[in-house]
Amino acid sequence: MPEKQAVGASGQNERSLFKMLSFVMLWVATLFSSLSLSMFMFTQSWYVVQDLGFEAALGVVLISLSVPRIIFMMVGGVLSDRKDQARIMFWSDLSRAILALMLVFEFVFVHPLPIWMLVVNAVLFGTLGGIFDPARDSILPVVVDSELLTRANSVIQGTMQVALFSGPLLAGIMLGVAGYRGTFVLVSACLFIAALCVYFVRTQKAGIVQAEVSAGFWQHLKDGFSYLWDSALLKALFIISVVVNFFLSGPLFMGLPIFVEGVLKGSAIDYSFVQGALTFGMIIGSILMGVINLRRKRGSYALFLMATQAVFVLILSQSNTLWMAAGAIIFVGLLIPSINIPLVSMIQEYTDKDKIGRIMSLIRTASFGLTPLSYAAASFILSLGVPIQSILFWSAFPLMISVACLFVSFPVLRKAD
Fold it and tell me: DSSP characters for 245-285?
């Protein structure tokens, strides 16, 4: 049974979230699962560059991890609406733990590892991770009350940010102490812990999926997209997610090292400082969302913060000192979860329980799937000789225009709580 409690005063809200065993287990599982992903990516990347000396092949390995993960999010979304999400997460974590252990044995018996082995492991790891993500997104409304969804999402998202930031640091320490085998043993241990925790998460799927259980995969996916597009609110939230990811991810995440090196004339230490400022801002934003637990006018709030984010991107593009850039990037990072968390909570609340997995997977797939296109677009414009500060400057305007268009075209969005 879902471990929901009566919601009273705000003080009771704050205490009740971590009194729910299922949520606590989900939170711990998210921490260790996210740690494992960041450590896996870092360790494989370092091995390709440092030990194999195949810098040119690094992109192939990373694509082999990310593309299957994006594609199989849709599969995971359909499965999450038909099966118990906790069990999907359990088998995903357990399978990846076994996969990491297999890598340990490969390092024992095969040295150096051929690049094709790393590609195959990356494909399998990404595929299993893609199935995990929509199950995690769709399980929260089953585990906690709707009044606590924003706070629960802020805790989960903040935990993921901390794990993705600290995972490479932990992997780097382990590589120095125990080598590749020891590091992949740690990755496997994290996933075993995550699987054990998620095993104790209790959901209630009986009666939810029986009406559609006979339909095929593509019919389920088509029904999910039709449901999303027929809802003005969900369609607006979908468009926001796509716009923000496309116009922000490429210019910002790919352009940041270029900006630091070319515009600020900074070093690797300066880049790590600016990158740390972005991560720090994202963590602070997640914490603030948990403390505020926004419940009213979340649509209007998201539109306002999108416009504010565009302003800080403009400020970043005009920065000529490290401190000015770091200050701007902190606020850009802070606004990323401040926009995403309320929107995700709204999607979870306003979507029928038997379709949350598909809706979340469609939105995640569209968002993450556009990230490589955003990188490609930014790379192409850079190849034309356009400076990175100009790309950052002009990327802010589509965000502002989108805010105005969404505000006028979707009144349901600005009125929605």
Answer: HHHHHIIIIIHHHHHHHHTS---HHHHHHHHHHHHHHHHHH
Domains of the chain: 10-199 (1.20.1250.20), 217-415 (1.20.1250.20)
Share of the chain above pLDDT 70, in %: 89
Q: Helix, strand or coil for residue 336?
A: helix
Give the Cα separation of 383 and 134 in Å (integer).
36
CA distance 101 to 187: 9
Return the pLDDT at 56.
62
Between the CA of residue 341 and those of 35, 207, 247, 301, what are the distances in Å? 20, 29, 19, 11
Among 11-20, 288-297, 308-317, the least confident range: 11-20
Task: Read off the pLDDT of residues 236-269 as tens digits, 9 standing for 90 and up.
Answer: 878 877 787 778 777 777 677 777 777 777 776 7
The C-alpha atoms of residue 108 and residue 128 are separated, in whole angstroms, by: 24
Asked if 142 and 204 count as a contact pair (C-beta separation under 8 A), the reply is: yes
pTM: 0.74
Q: Give per-residue pLDDT as tens, 111-146.
A: 777 878 888 888 888 888 888 888 888 888 888 877
Q: d(Cα 221, Cα 226) in Å, to the nearest integer?
A: 9
Nearest in space to 44 (alpha carbons), one of 166, 178, 163, 168: 168
Sign of the C-alpha dihedral, residues 63, 67, 70, 73?
A: negative
Alpha-carbon span 258 to 206, nearest angstrom: 52
In 10 A of CB 189, how many CB atoms?
Answer: 15
Tokens in use for 332?
């850009």
User: In the structure encoding, which two tokens stand for residue 250, read together?
Assistant: 């490429």
Q: State how far the Cα of 312 lies from the Cα of 388, in Å rounded to an integer.
A: 16
